[in-house]
Structure formats: structure tokens, C-alpha cells
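Project outcomes to date are best conveyed with an example. Our students and postdoctoral researchers have been running inverse folding experiments weekly, and each run begins with a structure described purely in C-alpha cells. The record below, which covers 128 residues, was selected by the lab manager from last quarter's runs and is presented without edits.
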């Protein structure tokens, strides 16, 4: 990998790691563009995909919305606000490991892992 590509990749990784919002590819693009004005959204996508494939970051698939990227390697759930779209980690309830590695009696499906995104109202929107 040449120097330019390494710099791009590092900035993209930094943008994900320093973000508190589980950024979408567009969020990352906007951040990285401040330092690399000529970077394309395609390049950002490609690097995010690569970082996710390498296991450096995680991709979160959000139903009917853009994928988000995750820096937190621990298994955890998320909340998403119906009004403002705020998307955050949830520490309680914590990840239920008891739901993994179980074989469903009805169809024999073996569950390996699960993701939950809780929908509702964040503290701010709730009080408005
Ligand atoms: Zn909200
Ligand atoms: Zn998270």
C-alpha cells in the first residue's frame, strides 16, 4: 500500500474511533474531507469495508437506514431515537450471552449471535 492510501486509511479509522455517534460512511466522509478535500465517498466506502473485513471496526446494519460503523469491539446493544435519530451504545440491558449458541427446537436453527437496536425516545426528545 502506498503512502497516500495509508494516510487515507488511517484518517478514516481515526474518524470512526473518535466519533461518538456510530458514524455512517457519509459522516466519516465529511470528517475526513476536512483534511483530505479530494477524497471521494467511494474511497471512504472501500476503506470502511476493508477495515470492517479486517475486524478493526464493525459494521452495523440498521434496518431502512445507512449502515453505521462501530469502534467498540465488545458485544452490546444500541438505542436509536425515533425523533432525532441519536444512536448510542447501551450498557443496560447488557448483551445476553445466554441467547447465543442455542439450537432452536422448532427448526434446528443454531443461533450464533444477535444484534438488538431499541427504538424510542432519547432523554432530550422525551422531555420536549
Ligand atoms: Zn432524540
Ligand atoms: Zn455501539
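After processing, the design step wrote out the following sequence:
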Amino acid at each position: 500500500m502506498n503512502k497516500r492510501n495509508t494516510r487515507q486509511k488511517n484518517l478514516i479509522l481515526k474518524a470512526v474511533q473518535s466519533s461518538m455517534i456510530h458514524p455512517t460512511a457519509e459522516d466519516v466522509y465529511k470528517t475526513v474531507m476536512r483534511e483530505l478535500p479530494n477524497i471521494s465517498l467511494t474511497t471512504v466506502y472501500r476503506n470502511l469495508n476493508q477495515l470492517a473485513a479486517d475486524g478493526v471496526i464493525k459494521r452495523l446494519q440498521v434496518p431502512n437506514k445507512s449502515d453505521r460503523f462501530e469502534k467498540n469491539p465488545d458485544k452490546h446493544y444500541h438505542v436509536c431515537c425515533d425523533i432525532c435519530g441519536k444512536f448510542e451504545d447501551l450498557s443496560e440491558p447488557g448483551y445476553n450471552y445466554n441467547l447465543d449458541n442455542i439450537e432452536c427446537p422448532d427448526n434446528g436453527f443454531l443461533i450464533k449471535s444477535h444484534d438488538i437496536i431499541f427504538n424510542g425516545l432519547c432523554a432530550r426528545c422525551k422531555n420536549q
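Residues 102 and 111 are 5 Å apart (CA to CA). The beta strands are 58-60, 68-70, 77-81, 87-90, 102-103, 110-111, 117-120. The training component of this project remains on track.
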